[in-house]
Amino acid sequence: MKPDRALGERAMLRHHGDVDAAPGLVNFAVNVRGDAPPPWLRDRLAAALARLGGYPSAEDDLGARQAVARRHGRSADEVLVLNGAEEGFALLAALRPKLAAVCHPSFTEPDLLLADAGVPVSRVMLRAEEGYRLRPELIPADADLVVLGNPTNPTSVLHAAETVRLLARPGRVLVVDEAFADAVPGEPESLAGDRATPGLLVLRSLTKTWALAGLRAGYALGAAGLLGRLAAGRPHWPVGTLTLEAVRACCEPFAVAEARAAAEVTADHRHTLATELASLPGVRVCLPAHGPFLLLEISDGHRVRAGLRAAGVAVRRGDTFPGLTPNHFRVAVRPPQQAAVLIEALRAIVDKEAIA
Q1: CA of 262: how far to CAs of 23, 86, 173, 239, 268, in Å?
Q2: Is the distance from CB of 295 to CB of 156 less than 8 angstroms?
Q3: Which tens digits make up the pLDDT trace of 239-264?
Q4: How many whole angstroms separate alpha carbon 136 and alpha carbon 157?
C-alpha cells in the first residue's frame, strides 16, 4: 500500500462521531445518552473531589472492582478498571497476538491500534445482504485474537451469545466489545458474566449510558491470568480517583436498575424512529436493530449529509467504517421531539429529490 493511501485510511479509521458534530447542530452523530451525567452521579463525583489530593489507593481500586464483580457475578480478580473501553483496545497488543481478526463493519479503534502496534490484522467483512450477521466460519483458523462488537457499532446488530461463543478456541483470545450492551433491555446476549468460555475478554463502557465521555470510564472482564497479561505494561495508578468512583457508582444495584429502565425507553424510541425513517422514500434502515443507534443507507449520500448539516442536523458519516459507503449514515436514537428534527430535515431533502 502506498504511504499516502495508508495515511488516508488511517485518518478514516480515526474518524469518530464527535468530528461530525459541531456547536449549534442537533447532534445525532454521537451515541451518548443525555448531555451530562444524572444529578446523583454528579453528586458522587463532586464528593470524590476532596480525595484528589492523594493518589488512588488500592482500596479504591478494589472497591470499584468488587462493585463490577457483584454486578456481573464474577470475582474481583476477574475485573480490570479502564479509562474507557478504548484503553482496553490499546492494551491488546500486550498479548502479543500473531494474527488479529477484526469483524467489520465495526468500531474502528481495535483495527487501528493493533495495526499501529505492528500486529497483522485480518478484516472479516460481514455482509449487508445477510444483515451483517456473524459467520464464525469466516474467522481465519490461525487468528489468535478475534475482536467483534455486540451490539455492533454502527450496524446495531445483536449477535446471539451462542454464536459468539463459537469463535472461542484454545490459544485464542476472544474480545467482545460490549460498549452498548447496557442499552439493550435485559442484556440478553451479554457474555459479561461468562466465566466458562476460554480466552474470553469482555470490554464494557460507562461512557454512553451515563454521559461520561469526558471522564473515560469502563472495565474489562476475563480470567485473572488474562487480565494480568493485559495490564502488565500499565504504569502505577493507571486509573484516577474520579473514574474509580464512577465505575463503583454505576455498578450499584440502583444504577443498574436505572440503566435497565433507560434501555427500555431507548428501545421504544428506536422503534418509533426506525418506523418513521423507513417511511421516507429512498431511506433504507438496517433492521433488526438493538443498539441506541440506527444504520441508514440513502442514495447520493454526500448531498444528503450536506443537506442535513445545512438544516442544522449532524449525523455520523458511514464511509469511514470498512465495508460501508458514502451512502451510509449512523444516527443516534433520540426522544421523539428531538428525533422529529431529523425526520423533517431528511423528509425535505428526499422530497426535493423526488420532485427533481
Answers
A1: 26, 23, 32, 27, 10
A2: yes
A3: 999 999 999 999 999 999 999 999 99
A4: 15
Question: C-alpha cell of 21?
Answer: 458534530
pLDDT in tens, 284-311: 999 999 999 999 999 999 999 999 999 9
Task: Provide the mean pLDDT of the chain.
Answer: 93
Cβ atoms of residues 192 and 256 within 8 Å: no
Exposed/middle/buried for residue 338 (C-beta within 10 Å: 0-12, 13-18, 19+): middle
Alpha carbon 85 to its chain centroid, in Å, reads: 8
Give the CA angle between residues 115, 324, 1 to the nearest 5°: 40
CA atoms of 265 and 281, how far apart (whole Å): 27
**Helix axes 241-250 and 253-278, enclosed angle (nearest 10):** 80
Averaged pLDDT for residues 130-150: 97
Residue with cell 482496553: 88
**Cα separation of 245 and 41, whole Å?**
9
- What is the helix, strand, coil percentage profile of the chain, to 5? 45, 15, 40
CA angle at 233 for the pair 228 and 235, rounded to the nearest 5°:
110
User: Residue 3 pLDDT > 50, yes or no?
Assistant: no
Answer whether 238's CB lies under 8 Å from 257's CB.
no
- Measured in degrees and rounded to the nearest 5, phi and psi for residue 255 equal -70, -40
Q: Find all residues with CB under 8 Å of 171, minimum gap 6, and list them.
A: 144, 199
DSSP for 13-49 reads: HT--HHHH--TTSEEESS--SSSS--HHHHHHHHHHG
pTM given for the model: 0.94
All structural domains of the chain: 3-35+263-350 (3.90.1150.10), 39-255 (3.40.640.10)
In DSSP terms, 285 is beta-bridged to 296
Count how many residues are written for the chain.
Answer: 356
Res 19 pLDDT > 90: no
Residue 244 C-alpha cell reads as 474509580
The grid coordinates of residue 223 equal: 480470567
